[in-house]
Structure formats: structure tokens, C-alpha cells
Amino acid sequence: MRHTDVSQLLVDAARAGDQGAFAELAGPYRHELQVHCYRMLGSVEDAEDVVQETYLRAWTRLDSFAGRAPFRAWMYGIATHACLDALRRKKARVWPTDVAGPADPNKVPSPPVELPWLQPYPDRLLPDGLLDVPAPPDAEPEAVVTSRETIELAFLAAIQRLSPRQRAVLILRDVLEWPAKETAEALEITQAAVNSALQRARATLAQHLEGRTVKSATSNATENALLKQVVAAWEGADTAALVRLLRADARLVMPPRMAWFDGRDAVEIFLRDHVFGEMGTEWLLVPTAANRHPAFALYWREPGDTVHRQFAIVVLRIEEGAIGEIAVFKQPELFSAFALPATMATL
User: Fold this and answer.
1) CA distance linking residue 142 with residue 122, whole number of Å
2) Do residues 177 and 36 touch, judged by C-beta distance below 8 A?
């Protein structure tokens, strides 16, 4: 073998049917492969399914591992092909601001729409050591936008605009920083095709993110302080306190609803009239984190109920010390991914 990242004895044992040896070989990569598949697919559920498929394919194709590349790269190649297969069967994940214009906050929000919505990713599932790495100061302008904050919702919403192959090339080259040669080998295409796909992907991504801030340099202490203020204001049904935490150009999105609100004034009307006016004040918030953003699980207690029940996972995008976006994911299936209970006892 040319690479020594795995033991030949383990490879031979796994090929002979030793599942324990295979688990020792492939197990360490599960979390990072799930993040890779999430970037490709934009869905926690789909990523979990594809990772399972990846490990099944790897187990049945161990004879094809010749050691010309590291075992980790071999696993990534299988995972990427499994994602491409999934993308042939599924539509790209969407974001409310990309499928509809801003809604009137004085009107009742439109009902949920069955679309493949982008989902948040729980930070608890991120591999240890997956840190935000800034782009080098001398990086090419078109590369800067793809070299930082690549687990955040703004980036993930943008790459949904790419074709499956462009998405795969962009992630392998600019996120994982693979050389063009290894990327071509993993995708079974030419280096010329890799370079062409990367150029088109970068151009499309830069155009989609033009004028948008992904995540500015905000300290964890500032984010945690803001999150505490949001929790106190929301549980106190204090619209004014919440609005003071928003940027003037803040947005509120609510997948699976297409309706979204643009600007602090519109968000204020929606919070005051609908969230606290129509639905009342029986809210309970549990802090968490998603996509390297502060987040919280939102629970609501209906009149006469004895417990607070799961309502939504809410993710906050912080820009320059203020909230730039509130993403309310009213998708109950997400609570299990965040290891959160379906109900909370009323205090």
C-alpha cells in the first residue's frame, strides 16, 4: 500500500468479513462524512440516510480499495457518489427568500407548503475540531466566499443553486481543499472538467451571495449574551425588547411556510400581532446551537394544556452584534436530531 493511514491487517480482516475491523477502519469518519453529506444535500435526514448507504457501499466494495489514496479519501469518494445519486432522485433544497417575495406582516401568513426545505444542522453532531477557518489574506476574491463559514445556512442556501456536480466539486476543492487531481479521481472525471465546474460554481455562488453577509466576526460571548436576551424577551412576550436586538434589515423566515418578512418594522408587526398577539404568551425556550449559529428550541403551551409542546427550532444569524435573520423551522422531526424532548413540563 502506498498510504499508511490504515493498517493492512485491518483491511485484510475486513475483506475477510470481520465487521469489527471494518468498524475500526471506517468508524472514525462517520461524523465528518455526515457533515459532508449535509453540505451536499441540505438535510439532516437525507445526510443520515446517505451516510448509511455510504457505509454499506464501502463494506461491499472493500476489494476496490487499492491503497492508491488514503482510506479517508476513498470513503469521501463513495459518500460523494452516494450524494450525487440521491440528488438525481431529489429536488434541491430551497429557502423562503429564494422562492417568494416578502410577505405583508399585516396579513395572515400563508399555510405550509410541501417543498424540500433546507434544514438546520445541530452543532452537537459536528466533529470535534471542525472550526471556522478564515480565508488567507492573499486569497483570490472568488475563493474567499467559499473558504469560510461553509456550514452556515447562507452558504448552504447558496450552493443549492449549483448543479450536483458543481456542488460536489466546490465542496471537495474549496471546503475540503482537495487538489484538482484527487477531486477528479474521486468523481471519475477529468481535471479539466473539475476546473471548469469549479469556475462556474464560484461565479454562481458569488453572484447569489452578492451583497449578503454570511457571518461577520462576532465573539461567542456576544452571541451568548444576545441569545440570553432573546430568551428573556420571547418568554416575556416583550416585542419591543426583541426588536431592539434586530438589525434594520433583519429578516424572519419560517420554513415550511413560504412567507417571510423583510426589515425590522415588518418583523416587529409579525411578532407583536401574530406570535404574541394571536398565539399568546405561553412560550418556553431552550438554548441550543445550529450551523455555528446560536439557536433555541421553541415550545408552546395551548390554553388548557398541562405541558409545553415542541413548536419549532429557531436559528439566529448574528451580524455585527445584532440579529440579521431569525429562521423559524416549524418541523417537529428536527427535535430528535437536536436531542430535545417533544414536551417540556410547565413550571
Assistant:
1) 29
2) no
Q: What are phi and psi of 294, to 5 degrees?
A: -65, 145
SS3 per residue for 302-316: CCCCCEEEEEEEEEE
Q: What is the model's pTM?
A: 0.89
79/234 Cα distance (integer angstroms): 41
CA 296 to CA 151: how far, in whole Å? 18
**CA–CA separation, 276 and 233 (whole Å):** 11
C-alpha cell at 181: 487531481
CA 153/CA 148 separation, integer angstroms: 12
Could you give the count of Cα atoms lying within 13 Å of 334 in the half-sphere of its Cβ?
29
**Amino acid at position 302, single letter:** E
Q: Please state at what angle helix 180-187 crosses helix 71-89, rounded to 10 degrees.
A: 60
3-state DSSP call for residue 343? strand
Q: For residue range 51-72, list pLDDT tens digits in order.
A: 999 999 999 999 999 877 889 9
Q: Which of 272, 268, 283 is nearest to 234 (CA)?
A: 283
Condensed to tens digits (0 to 9), the pLDDT of residues 159-206 reads 999 999 999 999 999 999 999 999 999 999 999 999 999 999 999 988
What is the identity of the amino acid at 37?
C
Q: What is the 3-state secondary structure (H, E, C) of 59-109?
A: HHCHHHCCCCCCHHHHHHHHHHHHHHHHHHHCCCCECHHHHCCCCCCCCCC
Residues 6 or more apart from 138 whose CB is under 8 A from it?
none
CA neighbor of 282 nearest in space, from 329, 208, 336, 344: 344
Which of 172, 340, 331, 156 shows the shortest CA–CA distance to 255? 331
